[in-house]
Every structure is written in structure tokens, then in C-alpha cells.
Amino acid sequence: MREKHAIRRAGFVYIVGAGPGPADLMTLRALNRLQRAEVVVHDRLITQEVLDLIPPNAERLYVGKALGNHSVPQEQINALLVFHAQAGRQVVRLKGGDPFVFGRGGEEVQTLQAHGIGFEVVPGVTAASGCATAAGIPLTHRDLAGSCIFLPGHLADESDAYDWAALARPGQTRVFYMGVQRLPHIARQLIAHGLAPDTPAAIVRDGTRATQRVWATGLSQLVTLAPSYGPQPGLVIIGETVQLGHCFERQ
To answer: Where is the chain membrane-spanning (predicted)?
Structure first.
């Protein structure tokens, strides 16, 4: 009599953007995929109210990163996704904001493809749009800014990372993710390359959350007002549209 062999269920990975913080800024699709999870691999900036939506029986794996302190290297995160998917589990890789905007989701997709693992990427509200909107700052405006550029703040110290002359040109909004710590350097470079020192600029910390704080004034003045770097997420927005925000203070 032939033995019956159990057919192992194929694992699957959902790379899910949780948005900038509040659970009601998640998409319906993100919530649906999260509720399917058997394993959740989540970042530092996922709020408790979003974590509370994880099924109670799902395994939770924290892989948060902070400046200078990566609790789990990206290569190990990739390996975790592969391991649990190959074990037949439904895995949710839960990220703050959007997985494909400075979220390293593209690297995780490449790893899954290389191992032949099925996946889906679920977009989320990225910090730039969520935080700017919460502060009343349009990222584009027909009369003030015809373009918007997103930049990782941690690269600002590298001499050849950015074309500062291009970034100093008018008619654009510049958004630096995690740029608070390097704001003095960012401001010096932009002003040295021709941007007016009184160009409207803002810091939005804990954007969209109950603890949100906004500092908005001219760029050179903002450097003196900026809070010290801390564990809260902070976004720097520089451009003429900042003057439309409800917290903007004219010099």
C-alpha cells in the first residue's frame, strides 16, 4: 500500500506598507493582508495601534532600525522572509510608510524572486505625503512648486551624494527623510549653491500622530529652532509651499 505524503502548503510573503502611523491611515488591502499573517516581520516605526491588529496567534519578529543601530541587518531580514516562506507560512513584512520609498522593499523583492517565492507588495501612505498633508503643506502647487524630490537625509554628509546646485534651483519642494540631524549641513549646502536663506522650510516630527509637532519658518532660522535628534521620526521639507502650512512663522 502506497504511503500518503502530506502536501506542504506554499508560503507567501506580503510586503505591506502600514502608512505613517495611525491605523486608520492603513489601506483596506494592508489590513486584509495583515489579518492573514502567520508571521509578521515588523519595523521600529510601526505604532502600537497597528501592531494590535496582528492576529493573536501570529508570530511577531521585530527587526527595527534606528540611526547607527540596526537590530537586525538587512541580509538577515531577507533570510528570515525566505526561511518562513519556505516553511509554508503566510508572512507579512510590515513597514512604516510605503515599502518602495526608502523602505528597502525592492531589495526584499529581489531576494524573494531569487528564491522563487511568491509575493505581493501593498503600497502605503508614505511619510512625505502623510506628514506634509498633516502639517497643511502641499508638496506641489501650480504657482510655487512644479516638482517634488524625496531624498534620504543620511546621505547629505557625502560630498558627491547630491547635485546641490540642482537642488537649490527654484520651483521645487525638497523632502529629506530622517533629515533633522543633518539639517545644518543641508541648509549650508543649499544656501551655498544659491538658495535664499529665508526659503520656507519645516520640520515635521511624529507626523500624522497625536504627538505631531511642526517647526516652520525660513531655512536659516529653522536651523536654530530645530529640535535635537531623537528616536521620533522627523521629516524636513524645504520649498515655497511650506509657507502655506498652518504652522509657518514669517521672519
So the answer is: none
Burial of 237 (0-12, 13-18, 19+ CB in 10 A): buried
User: Grid coordinates representing 4?
Assistant: 500518503
Total-model pTM:
0.91
Question: Looking up cell 538577515, which residue turns up?
Answer: 76
Q: What confidence tens digit (pLDDT) does each residue in 126-137 have?
A: 999 999 999 999
Task: Give pLDDT tens digits for 161-201.
Answer: 899 999 999 999 999 998 999 999 999 999 999 999 999 99
Where is 113: in which H helix or E strand?
helix 105-114
In angstroms, rounded to a whole number, what is the distance separating the alpha carbons of residues 41 and 57? 14
The stretch 30-58 carries a mean pLDDT of 97
- Give the Cα separation of 249 and 217 in Å (integer): 5
Q: Which residues are catalytic?
A: 43, 65
Start-end ranges of CATH 3.30.950.10 in the chain? 127-244
Fold of the CATH domain 12-122 = Cobalt-precorrin-4 Transmethylase; domain 1 (3.40.1010)
